[in-house]
Design a protein that fits this description.
- Helices cover 62% and strands 11% of the residues.
- The protein is mainly α.
- It has a 3-stranded antiparallel beta sheet with strand order 1-3-2.
- A hairpin with a 2-residue loop joins strand 2 (81-86) and strand 3 (89-94).
- Helix 1 runs antiparallel to helix 4 and helix 1 (16-34) packs across helix 5 (96-127).
- The longest helix is centred in the last third of the chain and has 32 residues, at 96-127.
- The relative contact order is 0.16.
């Protein structure tokens, strides 16, 4: 018997599939930016809070200041970090809104998987 179409904004999934699709265009850049190990490490450092200079971000690493600047620009374009000018210095800090949105999307995907796995479990158990 065919299953009836599920309401895309059902209680099991507040954002629903349609919400995931709408958010995917925006968040694809966030996931792409975070997909690079160097950028992910920079985000981890920036998660400590505060604003950091390029010199602080490159201290103790083998990566050049120019490379870090390019990585920070990619993260900035994705809305994950932002720069703040303090005199002649440019400081970088985390912009948590996009990361929070990405987290919510992953949770919604997880809920969709849970629903699908529950349906599969019920089907298998009813066939026994």
């Amino acid at each position: 018997m065919p299953s009836k179409p599920r309401n895309l904004s059902s209680p099991s999934s507040p954002a629903g599939v349609s919400g995931l699709v709408r958010a995917s265009d925006t968040l694809a850049g966030v996931f792409a930016a975070l997909g690079d190990p160097t950028r992910l490490k920079l985000v981890a450092v920036l998660c400590a809070g505060g604003a950091f200079s390029i010199a602080q971000l490159t201290a103790g690493t083998e990566i050049s200041r120019q490379a870090v600047t390019k990585h920070l620009q990619v993260l900035s374009d994705a809305g994950v970090v932002r720069d703040v000018k303090m005199g002649r210095e440019r400081l970088w800090q985390l912009e948590p809104a996009q990361i929070e949105e990405a987290r919510r999307m992953l949770e919604a995907i997880g809920r969709e998987w849970d629903v699908a796995l529950n349906k599969l479990k019920m089907f298998v158990e009813s066939s026994e």
